[in-house]
Amino acid sequence: MMELLWVIVAIPFASACVLAVLGSHLSHRVVTAWGVGSIGVSAAISMLVAADFVSAPPVGHAYTEFLWTWISIAGFQPHIGFYLDALSLVMILVVTFVSFWIHLYSVEFMRHDDGYSRFFAYMNLFVASMLTLLLADNLLLLYLGWEGVGLCSYLLIGFWYRDPANGLAARKAFIVTRVGDTAMLLGVFLLFTNLGTMQIQDLMHRASEQWAVGSPLAIAAALLLLAGAVGKSAQLPLQVWLPDAMAGPTPTSALIHAATMVTAGVYLIARTHGLFALAPVAQLTVAAVGAATLVLAGCSALTQHDIKRVLAYSTVSQIGYMFLALGVGAWSAAIFHFVTHAFFKALLFLGAGVIIEALHDEHSIFRMGGLRKELPVAFWTFLIGGCSLAGLPFITAGFYSKDLIIWGAWSAAQGHPGFWIVGMVGALLTSLYTFRVIFRVFFGPIQTPVGMHPGYAMTMPLVILAFCAIVGGAVKDHLLAFVQSTLPVMVEVHAAGMTETLSEVVAAFAFLIGLCVAYLFHLRKQSLAEQAVTNPAGRALHAWWCAGWGFDWLYDRVFVQPVLWLARSNKNDFIDTFYAGIARLTETLYRALQLTQTGLVRWYAAGLAVGSVLFLAIVVFS
Amino acid sequence: MFSLGLIGLLVRRDLIFVLMSLEVMLNAAGLAFVVAGSRWQQADGQIVFLFILAMAAAEVSVGLALVLQVYHRFKSLDVDALNEMRG
C-alpha cells in the first residue's frame, strides 16, 4: 500500500490542473466532483497508507519512495522523493482529513460565487503543495512545497480581487512571508555548502557528526531556518500578515490560515530537530519567540471586533504554544497540539463562516447576539470548538494538548518556570477571548436578524470536526508514542517544585477565571467592558492592542516609508538619462535622414549612380 | 552609351523617355558583354546578352503597364509630380 504514497500528492495536483485549464467550461456539478472528490480520494489513500504503516511498520519506522532525479549538475542531484515517517504521516492524515471536510463545506459556502472552479483549483493546488512540503525527503523539494503553499495563500487571500483592499492584504502576506523564505533559503544553502547534501535525514546525521553542540555554523543554520518558520507561521516579528489574511473566503482562512499552512513552520522545526538539538541557543530562541507571540497575540485577540480577526490572533497565539513546545524540547507535545488545533480551529472558522453568511456578511461581534436559538448547530459546535481552544478540563482535546505543553514548559530540557507562567497567562487570555466571542455572538439580545440557515454540506463538517475536537484528547497516549518513533522523547529534568497534576489544576483554574471574567464583562454587565474601554488608559491600551501592538505602524515607518522616499527621490532615474540620450540621438539622426527622402525618383537614381561610381572608384583605386 | 542612357534617365522627366533611357543602359551593358565575349573567345557573353534581352522585354511590358496605370491615376507622366512618397 505504501507505494501509493505519490498518488496522495498527485491526485490533488492533477485535479488542480484540470480545474485551472478546463474549469470555466465544466459544469458546477463536475467542478464539485473534481474539487471535493480528489481530496476525498487523497484522504482515503492516506488512511490506507497509515493503516499499512501502523500494522506493518517499515524498517527504521520510515519509508522512502524515490521517484526520479530532479536535477543533475556536477554532484548536485536533488531528486523528487517522498519520505514517510510517524511525523509526516500524522501531518498528512490531518491535512487531508481536515481539507476534505473544508472542501465539502466550501461547496455550499461558495455556491453562488463566480470563481467557483477557480476557488477549487487554488484549494486543490494548495493541498498538493502542502502534501509535497510534508512528504519531501530533501530540503529543495520541501522548499518547492513551501513556496507553493505561499503562492496559494496569496491567490486565495486576494480571491475576491475586485476589492483593492483584498489585493493589498494578499500582497502584504506574500511580501512578509517572503522575508522569512529568503532567510530560510539562505539556511538551506548554508547547510548544502557545508554538509554537501539536501536529503533531510542525511543532513541531520552529518550535522550531528561534523558539528559540535553550539558550533556557530549550526546556530546560524538553525536561526535561518527559524526565520523561515517564523514568517510562514506568523510568529514575532513577522506575524503582521495573518490578521489581514482574513480578507480571503472563510474556508480559506480555516484551511490555510488556521489548520494547515501556518503550521508548516512547526513542521519544519520538528523535521530538523537534529539541527536544533545542536544549537541550544537557537532552540531557546524558538521558545522565546513562541512565548512572546502567544501573549502578544492573546492580548490583541481580546480587543478585536471582527470575529475572524479574533480567530486569526488566536491562531497566532496557539502556534506560539507550538513554538514554545518545540523550543523547550517537548517535540511530540507540539505535534499533538497541531493535531488538536487543526480540528478545533478549522471548526471555529467554519462556524464563523456560517454565522457571517447567516448575518449577511456581518463581521463585528458587537452587532451579533442571541444566535443560540437561531443557529443551534453552529452554536453547539462553536461552543465545543471554543471550549477545546480554551481548554475545558478533561473533556476537550485542547485541554490535553495545551496542558502537555505548559507542563513541558516547566519540566522539559530547556524548560523554565518563566515559560510556565507565560503559558498560564496565555491560557487565561485564551479562555477570556474565546468566551468573549461566544457570549457576544450567541447570548444576549438578537441584534441582526438571521437571513439564512446553513445546509447539510455546511453543518456536517462542523459536526464531524466537533466530534474530533472532543475525542482528539483520547488518542493522546497512542499519538505521543507513535510520534516518538521519530521525534525525541521529552525528558522531564526540571520536575522539582511542580507536578503534572498540579499544573493541570492551575490551568483549569486559568480556564475558569477567564470564563468568569468574560461572563461578567460580556454578558452580565456589559457596562463594565465599556467602562474599561472608555477611561483614558484603557482606551489607549485598547487601541494599541487592537492595532496588533503597533507592529504595522512600526514597519511602515522603518521599512516602507524609507523605501517609498528613496523611490520618490529617484523618480527621474539617473541611469535612465543615458538611455534617454541614446533615444534622442537616434531621433535627431532620423530627422536629418528624413530630409533626403524627397519622393523624387530621379534624385534617387542620381544617388544610386553617384554611389556606384564612388564605390567603384574606391575598389579600383585602392 | 551607358552614360548617355544614365544622363537621359536623370534629365528627362517624361516616364516614357525614362523607360527608353533604361533600355539604352541595358543595351549598353549587353553590348559590353558581347564585346567582352568576342575579346576572350567565350560564348558566355552572347548567352548573357540573350538573358538580358528576355529580361528587358519582360521589364518593358511591366513598365509600360505601370505607365498606363500611372497615367490613369495622375493624368500625367511627369516623374517629379509623383512625389507622394516624400518622407
Could you walk me through the main structural features you see in this protein, from its secondary elements to its overall organization?
The complex is a heterodimer of chains A (622) and B (87). Chain A is an all-alpha fold. Among the domains of chain A are: 241 residues, no CATH class; 54 residues, no CATH class. Chain A contains 27 helices and 2 strands. In chain A, strands 1-2 form a two-stranded antiparallel sheet. In chain A, helix 3 packs parallel to helix 15 and helix 13 packs parallel to helix 19. Chain B is mainly α and 87 residues long. Chain B is 76% helix and 0% strand. Chain B is built from 3 helices and no strands. In chain B, helix 2 packs antiparallel against helix 3. The mean pLDDT of chain B is 83. At the A-B interface, helix 27 of A face helix 1 of B.
Strand order of the largest sheet of chain A: 1-2
The ordered H/E elements of chain A are HHEEHHHHHHHHHHHHHHHHHHHHHHHHH
The assembly state of the depicted protein chains is heterodimer
The portion of residues forming beta strands of chain A comes to under 5%
Percentage of residues in strands of chain B: under 5%
What separation lies between the terminal Cα atoms of chain A? Answer: 86 Å
Q: Can you write the helix and strand succession of chain B as a string?
A: HHH
> Major sheet of chain A: size, sense and barrel closure?
2 strands, antiparallel
Q: Topology, pairings included?
A:
The complex is a heterodimer of chains A (622) and B (87).
Chain A: H1 5-22, H2 28-55, E1 62-69, E2 79-85, H3 86-109, H4 116-135, H5 139-157, H6 164-195, H7 200-210, H8 216-232, H9 241-244, H10 250-259, H11 264-271, H12 273-278, H13 280-303, H14 307-328, H15 331-358, H16 371-374, H17 376-390, H18 397-411, H19 417-442, H20 456-471, H21 476-483, H22 500-524, H23 526-534, H24 536-546, H25 551-569, H26 574-594, H27 601-621
Antiparallel strand pairs in A: 1-2
Helix pairs in contact in A: 1-2, 1-4, 2-3, 2-4, 3-4, 3-10, 3-15, 3-20, 4-5, 5-6, 5-10, 6-8, 8-11, 8-13, 10-14, 10-15, 13-14, 13-19, 13-24, 14-15, 14-18, 14-19, 15-17, 15-18, 15-20, 15-21, 17-19, 17-20, 18-19, 18-22, 19-22, 22-23, 23-24
Chain B: H1 2-11, H2 15-39, H3 44-74
Helix pairs in contact in B: 1-2, 2-3
